[in-house]
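Rotation project, supervised by the postdoc (A.L.). Task for the rotation student: set up a whole-complex structure prediction and record inputs and outputs verbatim in this book. Inputs entered:
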Amino acid sequence: MTTTTLAVLVPLLPFLGAAAGLLLGRSAPGFVRPLAILPTLAALVLAVLVAARQGGGRAVDAVTELTPTGSVPVELALHVDGFAALVAVLVGTVATCVQLYSTGYLRDDPRYPSYAALVSLFTSAMFLVVYSGDLMVLLVGWEVMGICSYFLVGHYWETPEARAASLKAFLVTKLGDVPFLIGLLALATEAGSFRITKVLGAVASGSLDHPTLIALLLLAGVAGKSAQFPLHTWLPDAMAGPTPVSALIHAATMVAAGVYFVARLLPLFEASRAAMVVLAVMAAVTMVGSALAALAQDDIKRVLAYSTIGQLGYMTGALATGDRGAAVFHLLTHGAFKALLFLAAGVIIHAAGTNSLAAMSRMRGLRDRVPDAFWTMTVALLALAAIPPFSGFFSKESVLGAAEHVATGHTEHAPGAAGWTVLVAGLITALLTAAYATRLWLLAFRGQGAEAPDHGRQPLVMNAVLWVLALPSLALGGLAFRLLPDWFDGHDLTPTLTTSVLGTGVALVGGIVTYAAWRHTTALAVRTPLGAVAAHPEGDAALVEAEAIASHRPAYGDLASAPDPSDPGRLLLGPVHPHAAAGFHLDAVYTTLFVRPVRAGASLVRFLDREVVDTYVRAAGALPRLLGAAVRSAQTGNVQTYVSALLAGTVVLAVAAVLVATGA
Amino acid sequence: MTLAAASHGFLSPTGVEIAFLLVGLVTFGAAVVTVTTRQLVHAALWLVVALGGLAVEYLLLTAEFIAWVQVLIYVGAVVVLILFGLMLTRAPIGRSPDADSGNRWAALTVAVASAAALVWVVVDAFRTTWIDLDGPAAGSTAVTGASLFQNWVLPFEALSVLLLAALVGAIVLSRKAKAARAGEAPPAKTSPTGASSSGTSPSGASSSGTSQTGGVR
Amino acid sequence: MHLAYPAVLSALLFCTGLYGVLARRNAILVLMSVELMLNAVNLNLVAFDVWLSRAAEETLHSGQALTLFTIAIAAAEIGIGLAIVLAVHRNRGTSDIDRLRDTAEGHEPDGPDTDTPATGTAAEKAEATA
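Outputs recorded:
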């Protein structure tokens, strides 16, 4: 088979698996698990084959036009370069792991068939985005991911949190998608084609008239999909979905799509210095803000969600400095360790029966209950905190290195201000990242107090997946940073001494400070009992998690934080803590700016409909009814009355006819 | 005709016209009493006066054959039939307070309105038209017979079929009611009576149906 | 003679009959009123026939022929009409037009007419035994 055929099969196989799963899910439950895993696994193998054949050489391009579609043709185009090939491998790996993990995690879930099919569809859409060489086809995958995320985040639709979160995820990403669509159409009109290669050709020849406008419109969609400030608010709430879905969304699909899209069209963004500055500021605000918020969260998954937002900020920061190699490098390593973090968090939630760090910090021996999750999570947290030699260190250093490169004015691609912004924000975020990673580890695994509840052994498949993902988290960065430039643009990704020392130093400082704070506060934990544990020793992990999410607000008073005085984050953040826990009140701002006016408008429309329009409708109904009653009363059955009326009418007509005929 | 009419004004009526007018007033008055009286049998008798008055008007218009047919059939047969009908439906003899329905005022309005319209139109159209009644009678038996059997034979025969149908229909209607009453009366008595006079066949049917009333008469 | 005299008389008779048809309660009186209307038409026909037979050279005497037909048809009509009235009277016990309201809106079969068939059958029984 040619490389093109293989590449076409990659998105096609999970799609067929999803279709078959949706069709056969009820009638043949025995086929559901193979139909979920095998197509994804096959797609992974094919993606690896495509990557091996492509090998970082010339991009594979194939195009076919199904039918004429107006002035700007929409073509089924394939564009596989080094970025696409490697990202596809990442997507396949994470998706396969998630599917395997889900078989254990949603072991007893009655809605597993539709869940697995939607995960397959989600994967297929992401493959489509990755391989597509046509912006319209890319948009199809982009939107399919949006709707899949809506269904998957709302998997526990019995809980109000999940319903609200799924709607919020859908609406916020759509808010970005509208300008995105307009930007795509404007771009295609000016470039004369939806083909990425032709668009980039047009950018290179400078034939675009409004690059800034187009870039900013596209950035809105990217911010929505990749959860960048100010459209990031859906991502923490999306934690109401099952943990494997969170892993999938955060590691490989959905949020990665935005970063990947900018990486593909980076020359377009570089054509506008304003767009690059906006991108840099967006990345900086996102990084610092999300890291502060992560330090204040109580839900373990919300900590990870804010950390995802922060790491995506690193990637957009790298893009703002014009180095897409560093961005995609970080995307790859982050995909590996973030998937691992989420899947391990799922295991921990199942074992502890709660998703609250405050409750975990009052449990003894949780570490011994889940040794696999403990060790792999430690690896992943070290990678997240960018401690050498874990993979996160190398990718983050490449980002900081690129920023430093731009800041010191060594490149033409990006403005120096963008470099400085990204560099400073990146270093601050490195400190904060290490702090919240340490806090998470300490609270989850170094708890004091009662014995952790026994929820039985974790399913083998879940633990196995953790170890599979631990390998790249540990070693991918160190092994790959020398090879990757061949696949990418050729920028050097080797860590530079200055940024390495600075980054590692601030990370160590963050970790040590947090440890000291924890030592100071942990004594308080025993004095303030707190916590609620889901009591389903026999239930599968999904059931435990759904119950933990549903009980968080009743038990602790808030979805995001807990009134826990022993939390080191509370000590470190000081007065900022309540604001950080609430995500800096961005939701409240949105409520004031958008939700309330819309609700007021809706109630106005409802009032107009009920009181004004309906009055006309009712009158339109009542008038004929009155007339009908009047006419009905004339139907007496008395023939003489009828004939009288008939003759009276005849006389009138005859007189009228005579008058007309005589011209009177 | 217009020239001829111009010489004859309404203020100098001829003798025929005066006679026509007087008889017409009697006829109209009898008709009005027929439709307003509260005594049902009196109404039938006043109808006789009205129909007889009409027969006289026919004579005054020189249509003598029509006049005699009018007397024979209407005054002779139809009114007798109506009297039979009144008796068979046990109409009260004497004043009945509810001879008119509640529709009276609407009926009066409609009738007066149509009378006004018709009289207005007719007078407007024919006030100058003159009928020359001198010369041979226009409706003598010879003239009418010749016309009827030269030009109107086919309708005449068709009419006989219609009368036959009416005869059969009347018998069927009466027999149906009789069959519902356990069929005691012998049907053989009905057919000779009905066949004897085509115009009065319903009277034969009804009289045979209620032999008691017939016997009384 | 002026044509207006018979024409006006015919119109007045017609409207008198019309009033009777509309206002009378007893079905036989209604039939009598119908006879009046028919006769009014007959008078019209005869008057116009006489006028036209003088005015025209050749005439079919269609007015008089039609008058004869009308008289014959009226005889048939009164026969059938009376038979119907009698049948109704036997079934319902009444020949009042304004009590035969089966076509009224909201008419119920077991409404105010329920007692009339009972009395009708009672009258028939009395008749039969006599």
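Student's summary: The two ends of chain C are 58 Å apart (CA to CA).
Supervisor addendum: Confidence is low (pLDDT under 50) at residues 110-130 of chain C.
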